[in-house]
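HOLO CASE FILE
Compound: adenosine-5'-diphosphate
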Amino acid sequence: MVKVVKFGGSSLASAAQFAKVGDIIRADESRRYVVPSAPGKRNAKDTKVTDMLYSCYALAEAEEDFKGALKKIKERYNSIINGLNLTLSLEDEFRTIEKNFADKAGEDYAASRGEYLNGIIMANYLGYEFIDAAEVIFFDENGNFDDYKTDKAMAERLSHVEKAVIPGFYGSDSNGNVKTFSRGGSDITGSIVSKAVHASVYENWTDVSGCLVADPRIVENAQPIKVITYRELRELSYMGASVLHEDAIFPVRKAGIPINIKNTNAPEEPGTMIVESTCQKADYTITGIAGKRGFVAVNIDKDMMNSEVGFCRKALEAFEENGISIEHMPSGIDTMTVFVHQEEFEGKEQQVISSIRRLVNPDIIDLEADLALIAVVGRGMKSTRGTAGRIFSALAHANINVKMIDQGSSELNIIIGVSNNDFDNAIKAIYDIFVMTQI
Ligand SMILES: Nc1ncnc2c1ncn2[C@@H]1O[C@H](COP(=O)(O)OP(=O)(O)O)[C@@H](O)[C@H]1O
Ligand SMILES: N[C@@H](CC(=O)OP(=O)(O)O)C(=O)O
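Model generated. Tokens follow.
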């Protein structure tokens, strides 16, 4: 049996956290391949090493003095090395990094050093072999992850290695330069390694006891989800459940490998199992709730728009022309609404409105800003009557004005639009009605 274990930044923020990780790995011989993130926050006010690297590199790129900022990063690693009593020096590594920053090696290179250096420490601490992710994870000429090339190289390389540490978050592009995944991407690395070694399980260790029904920063003591499907998890993580990167399921899903999200600070707890399919009923009608703030609704009205062939396509062209991505699009007979990210849309709204006018000549266009979208996700919802009704009544009781409600055709999720200000209360109200009443 082979297990791949990924430890997030919160699990590796200090020597004390490293020691817990060491105990977890040594407790099970099958934990043979380890994927570390960069050191995360030691407390709420702390800064992740990845963020320190981005700011340090921004100074280098602006040709300002970055040596002080780099020294602070070195101190974080040295405090881990000293706290673990290792006889390891990263002096040579930091000299190389300083030179490469001065030569403007790129933002991705800079950010990747967080995982690279932590991987060297982890390998030294465990007595495992260190494998640079740049040698085994590849992106193609369009910048997309190269599944085929990576799987082949990774499987070949690891077939000769009994126990190894492979840093998360990065690989190399088609020119051999370092390239990172998007933020939180070490979760993807763990999934890629799991597929290549045919792991029996991919353990993803973090600072909470699994994927919880709602974000614990909003709902105190949110319950852990025991079993969730890949599809449900993807919906939740895309909509803001940041415990797992939304793309991390793809490699393992192809190989049918379950993901187990576990808590480094409470390893005895079972955590969450993420699987293809399950006959196990969820504890509640819903599996989870997640959401994001910061959307604008663009309402487009035109009498009889439903009989105008190509209306929606042409209206959407207005967004494409202006480089705006679309998040969600509920529609009615004479109206369609397009939800876009406020950050992306601000400053371009007049261009988009004039494009819509030119392309579809609507009767009315109006904008509503400062909205939040909430996804209520659950495989059990389609067999339970009245789910949407319960959501409505919970929100009405909490005095929350529902701007939009939309059920996907898969009946796996219901999307609700509320004002940004009502976001937290809406999530709490939905959590209470389904979880606290135990139905
Ligand atoms: N539904 C959820 N379940 C669990 N954690 C969540 C959820 N939504 C948001 N989170 C947040 O995700 C955090 C874990 O992800 P992250 O900070 O990326 O950890 P790591 O550093 O281990 O990768 C938790 O501490 C929690 O605040
Ligand atoms: N360190 C990177 C990649 C990562 O996955 O980190 P974490 O496992 O701490 O979310 C980031 O901050 O984005």
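CASE NOTES: The mean pLDDT is 95. The pocket of adenosine-5'-diphosphate (ligand 1) is lined by residues 8-11, 37, 40, 184, 206-208, 211-212, 214-217, 241-243, 288 (CB under 6 Å).
CLOSED: yes
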